[in-house]
Design goal:
- Two copies of one chain form a homodimer.
- Chain A has 339 residues and is α/β, with parallel strands linked by helices.
- Helices cover 43% and strands 15% of the residues of chain A.
- Chain A is built from twelve helices and eleven strands.
- A six-stranded parallel beta sheet of chain A has the order 2-1-3-4-5-10, sandwiched between helices.
- In chain A, helix 11 links the parallel strand 7 and strand 8.
- In chain A, helix 5 runs parallel beside helix 12.
- Chain A is elongated, with a radius of gyration of 25 Å.
- The N and C termini of chain A lie far apart (79 Å).
- Chains A and B meet through helix 4, helix 5, strand 2, helix 6 and helix 11 of A and helix 4, helix 5, strand 2, helix 6 and helix 11 of B.
- Chain A binds a DNA duplex (30 and 30 nucleotides) through helix 2 and helix 4.
Chain lengths: 339, 339
DNA sequence: ATTTTGAATGGACACGTGTCCATTTTTGTT
DNA sequence: AACAAAAATGGACACGTGTCCATTCAAAAT
């Protein structure tokens, strides 16, 4: 492997000077700089980041832990972040936790081993790994939570305005006349902001949430499919279903179609995430869209900014607004005329 | 940062012995091993992979370069590969080339800088970076091409049986009575296997491909949308459209819907990739599905196997079969009855 | 011509690990 | 009990970089 020493020898300068051609070119004479650059190109020299990482104590590397990279939300986030950190000379190491704490821990260890400078994480529910994250932070890794954050973690985070989004959606459905509105989400231990907002706002609207509506999905397409079938079998099925993620929406929509439920005549359907397919199906779905790209860019910006300015303890808490896009999957419930 | 020296001191053994507790535990007495392990847990020691990488000359890291991580094909591939390499103790560094040679080169440099042990790449069209890849390989990085390979690259690759898949699809459409079959793909310079197969098999079937059918998309949803509109405006529009990727299918389907083309009555539609949405739209699409998981797992297996057995020059060329799933988007063309 | 200043270049060392070889301890054999 | 053999443990060094300090050189000021 060619190192800076080879470059220095080739250019006839000291190793220190050669390194400056890479890191602080302004310190060199134009002539010297050119000589070294020629040598670099001739030898195809590429600085060894692993050596730099060892010396500095942390690598030019950002870890990204997502829930499930197959979900377009995370895929798009990954892509945006990857591009942004590459532009700053960092590499992105990716892992997903499948919303599972123990798998997450394994991957956190891996990130630790790689001495990532920063960590962008959509952590699994539960505070199981909070202690580990705290230690990571203490050892110099900047940590940014995204899409979800652990209560009292104290880390920076980038969140959607989930309460606002759910409120927009629920008021939209309520104004159409819906009273029996079910949500597909995770209710357990009030960990999910959207679930909390759903509970709160339903109450604000004077609506009761039947016990039967309060069962959770597991955030998978398959789980939402099963959960939707359960809702349909209820003696009093909902007149509207509000899916809290685009991933679950696919499962729910499949169930509705299979059961020949007409949308929106029989049931109105609303979901978070403006995935490409939602406008291709019949009827095109009403969605609440997130500014994924903006959030991803900001995440990369915050993390790299904190690293380069060595402000590891500075906390940023940011919220981003979402937007309702109405298409054709929500309408007044049939029963509404009876009121 | 706590190092193995701290562990050794804490456990009252030499650094070498402490390291063995991590790397070759079978060499230690049960008592010693336990003592060291206790110290490791107490100190939350995690080996510094950057130091190991420096020493060994390459990191415990695999690079993955995909075309566009937002496409479910690549997202699923990424996930499968990530999981498989994590299980072997490797980290996965992800980048996408957006099918662009110069962006790819930037990311290859980044991979080189990180001293990745292996590289799984869906390279951009064109041989622009072949030389760089060859150098990487020469310097000890195992290279595996996936989904597409550069002619005469000499690297290992994992490919779909593209010819078989296209043949299955075209014969299926031909048997239904279609003669004017257009393909959405990249024709330029015969770089894409599916485009080549389309050209060959159409000839085998005794069918002519009009000049107007031979224009390329840019592999994006948007590009396929525009290309489909062009096809529809033709004086003799095709009776069947065969989309060579699931990504393009979304754009094409959108165009067909917007133009109120009835599928399959007006035009039959067939596509590669069994994406989730293809069975949710009306009509559910006939698709050719790829064994993405199998291919991803095999890719990880080959790369890590070659690295660990230090057989960097061993070449594996593997092909995987695909399968036609018929749903409701293909039927006999209307004109067929006139024959 | 001499001194002063700042710019440009060079040298030495440590980061934590893996590898190789040396030394000590234990076990088995007679 | 004495020795050989094997098992267990220890020590020294290099990987390529970033950082700090030292040295040399050129230009400006006297």
């Amino acid at each position: 492997m060619t190192s800076i020493l080879d470059v220095a020898k080739k250019a006839g300068v000291s190793p220190t000077t050669a390194k400056r051609a890479v890191n602080q070119p302004h310190l060199l004479t134009k002539a010297t700089l050119e000589r070294v650059q020629t040598a670099i190109e001739f030898l195809n020299y590429e600085p060894d980041r692993t050596a730099g990482a060892l010396r500095r104590g942390h690598s030019q590397t950002i870890g990204l832990m997502v829930g499930n990279i197959i979900e377009p939300f995370f895929a798009q986030l990954t892509r945006t972040i990857a591009k942004a950190v590459h532009a700053k000379g960092y590499a992105l190491i990716v892992a997903d936790n499948e919303y599972d704490t123990s798998l997450e821990l394994e991957n956190l260890r891996m990130f630790h081993g790689q001495r990532v400078s920063g960590l962008i994480i959509r952590s699994a529910f539960g505070t199981g790994n909070l202690e580990y994250l705290r230690r990571l932070h203490q050892q110099g890794t900047y940590i940014l939570e995204i899409d979800h954050f652990l209560p009292e973690s104290g880390f920076s985070h980038i969140m959607l305005d989930n309460h606002g989004g759910v409120e927009t959606g629920l008021r939209y459905l309520h104004n159409l006349g819906h009273r029996k509105i079910a949500a597909l989400t995770v209710f357990e231990a009030h960990q999910d902001e959207r679930a909390r907002a759903y509970t709160e706002i339903m109450t604000d609207l004077g609506l009761k949430i039947p016990k039967a509506y309060q069962r959770s999905t597991d955030l998978t397409e398959e789980g939402a499919y099963r959960r939707t079938l359960e809702l349909l079998r209820l003696p009093e099925p909902p007149t509207a279903i509000f899916s809290m993620t685009g991933n679950e929406a696919a499962g729910a929509f499949r169930a509705l179609k299979e059961q020949h439920i007409r949308i929106p005549e029989d049931i109105s359907f609303l979901t978070f995430d403006d995935y490409s397919w939602t406008s291709l199906v019949e009827p095109p779905l009403d969605v609440i869209t997130q500014p994924i790209q903006t959030m991803g860019l900001r995440a990369a910006e915050l993390v790299i900014g904190a690293i380069e300015r060595r402000q590891l303890n500075q906390t940023h808490l940011e919220r981003f607004a979402c937007r309702l896009i109405t298409r054709s999957s929500c309408a007044a419930p049939r029963s509404h005329s009876l009121h």
